[in-house]
Write a structure and sequence with these properties.
By secondary structure, the protein is mostly helical. Helix content is 76%, strand content 0%.
């Protein structure tokens, strides 16, 4: 038996196996580096997703606040329009019936007219109304000559 040939054959096989082992070790190290790079990229992506979700939550909260304010504004606007329409209706009925608008109560034209008729019946004038009576002055302007004459002929003293 040729030991040297056997030795060389085994040494060649060993070197081939060793070379193959080193090749797989290099591949494994490269794969491990790729795995670490992928994990780093995944970690960065997860952080970016977390930041985006946080920003989305902030924007949704701000959007909810804006919707709430818009709803309040729309309600206030609708209420103001309703009040204006009611005031116009009250003014119209007051003008038509001759009743002061501040005395009328009701939400619909029919209710306002019915209330005006009730008020007319309750507060009928007890004396005839003289046209222009409200325009006459209640107190005469002061005049020095008039005051002097009044003082001369007055019996208050």
């Amino acid at each position: 038996m040729d030991y040297e040939a056997e030795y060389n054959k085994l040494k060649t096989e060993f070197d081939e196996l060793k070379s193959e082992s080193r090749k797989w070790e290099d591949r494994s190290k490269a794969n491990y580096k790729d795995l670490q790079d992928a994990q780093m990229a995944l970690s960065e992506r997860d952080k970016a997703i977390e930041d985006a979700n946080s920003r989305l939550s902030e924007l949704e909260a701000a959007n909810g606040d804006m919707k709430s304010k818009l709803d309040q504004f729309e309600q206030a606007e609708a209420q103001a329009a309703q009040e204006k329409a009611h005031a116009e209706l009250v003014s119209e009925v007051a003008e038509a019936t001759g009743i002061d608008a501040s005395a009328l109560r009701g939400t619909t034209k029919e209710e306002l007219e019915a209330h005006a008729e009730t008020l007319k019946a309750v507060f009928k004038p007890s004396a005839p109304v003289i046209e222009g009576q409200a325009n006459t002055p209640g107190e005469q302007p002061s005049d020095e000559l008039r005051e002097f004459t009044r003082g001369l002929f007055s019996s208050d003293e």
